[in-house]
Amino acid sequence: MNELNLDDFKGIIFDLDGVIYDITEAIKKAVEDGIEKYQMNVSRDEVMEEIAHLIEDIQNYPVPEIILNSYTLLDIKFLEGLSFFKKLRIGIYLFTQFNQYKDEESKIFEGIAKLISNLSRKNLKLAILTNNKSSYAEEVLSKFNLTKFFDPIIGFNDVSKVKPDPEGILKILEIWKIKPSQAIFVGDMTTDIDAGKAANVRMICVSSGLAKKETLIEHEPDILVNNTEELIKIFNI
Ligand SMILES: [Mg+2]
Q1: CA quadruple 214, 4, 13, 208: dihedral, nearest 10
Q2: Of 52, 54, 64, 116, which sits with the fewest C-beta atoms within 10 Å of its C-beta?
Q3: What spacing in Å lies between the alpha carbon of 57 and ligand 1's midpoint?
Q4: How far apart, in whole angstroms, are the C-alpha atoms of residue 193 and residue 211?
Q5: What does the pLDDT look like over 13-46, one tens digit per residue?
């Protein structure tokens, strides 16, 4: 496993869902419900990644844009061959179920709060970059008393192009007045890896269970860890 020397860095940018906030159970349950209700001939683990992306995409857009883009949004492999209206019905059902489970099932990953406060104590700047709304991030962070550690908190509403575009990362570096080589970005999806690499920061990918590990490897993160425990070890504090 690669070692990191934290003295080389001034700031760390975190993705929220899948890195700090664990939404895996909520997505799993929504997918199980969808497969059962629509009697789909697929396995849950096979479609998790596509559905995680779909849910992230839907959360990104205001409703009129979801409607306008629904044809493209729902152009995903596991819905292939179904009529557009059937796809739409399944998409809406999955999203509704996910939202229902999200509050009760979701928690922060074990050990992540301690890691964040330890990093902050080392005088490292910390930020959040999510493809979700920034108010959603603030809500989640405040629920776990973590808001005070992060400045800025950037969501899709603060940039013109979301990840995989590097805009959000570059914006944070500009606010902090530091160079890409002095920053680390921690994410869990291929879109995070692509954004981090395009911004030229050190990219750490946590395989949280939503994206397939082989797919993540194909996108070549600088460091790939299997879980939060390994992430904490990498920082060695
Ligand atoms: Mg994520």
Answers
A1: 30
A2: 64
A3: 12
A4: 12
A5: 999 999 999 988 899 999 999 999 999 888 888 8
